Amino acid sequence: MPASITLYRFLASKWALKTLTERRLRASRIIELNDPFEWRVGTIAETPELAESGRLAFDDFVKRINNQWGIVSMSAIATDSVIWSHYADSHKGIALEFDHDRDTGLHAIAYSHALPTFDVTKFVGEGYDNQYTLGVLRTALGRKSLTWSYEREYRAHLDLPKCDEEEGHYFSSIPDNFLKRVILGIRCETPIETVEQALKAGGFENIPIVRACMSETAYEIRCD
Predict the structure, then answer these.
(1) Among candidates 200, 208, 176, 203, which has minimal Cα distance to 95?
(2) Could you say which of 76, 181, 187, 218 would form a disulfide bridge with 152 (CB–CB 3.0 to 4.6 Å)?
(3) Beta-carbon-side half-sphere exposure of residue 75 (alpha carbons within 13 Å)
(4) How far is CA 95 from CA 8, 11, 52, in A?
């Protein structure tokens, strides 16, 4: 397996320029993610009352973890038009291409119709087990509905206390040799000169800037 993988971060132009200028990525909080099924689990229990108690306990655990974990979402594909529409301001935005190490902090999302399960009976019978609950949460954070599979999402999990904090938002610095290209959307009106200035301000050197275009033979975006 290669030691690294090419991933893409899609942003509206103003946020892409801010990311480059400040040389840092904004981390999303667990409970701020846009899918209401994020970290949702099914509960296994002997009674409805026990299932409800288990869900409340799990939700409380998630709220506490929310102050510890952050997520940077990226995609393994840059040719999908829907991704550009949803995450890059209807193709008016910018994609940042990264060469990301395949390390323990990077996780591929698995897509499934079934929710991960939280065994409340086991939880209650054996007493509070932080590692069991954390394991279920990790599974939940790494799973989404099949309807999201077009994203081919990867997530970098960040330790929020180690990130820069600014007005309740958390940021992680972009390391050297991480950014490989800047791709302007097919409707992006941001001048190349403006992107070059942002790259210079962020201390980036020799980063190619390319403009995406529509394929002449398929429903896909070309970025070469």
Answers:
(1) 208
(2) 76
(3) 21
(4) 6, 6, 42
Please give the model's pTM, rounded to 2 decimal places: 0.90
Q: Residue 24 to residues 30, 108, 122, 152: CA-CA distances in angstroms? A: 19, 22, 42, 23
pLDDT tens-digit profile of 136-148? 878 888 999 999 9
CA angle 102, 106, 108 (to 5 degrees): 100
In whole angstroms, what is the distance from residue 180 CA to residue 96 CA?
8
Q: What is the mean pLDDT of residues 101-121?
A: 88
Query: Residue 46 has what DSSP assignment?
Result: S
Alpha carbon distance 127, 181 (integer Å): 50
Beta strand 209-211 with 179-184: parallel, antiparallel or unpaired? parallel
Residue with the two structure tokens 């190490």:
101
Give the Cα separation of 89 and 180 in Å (integer): 22
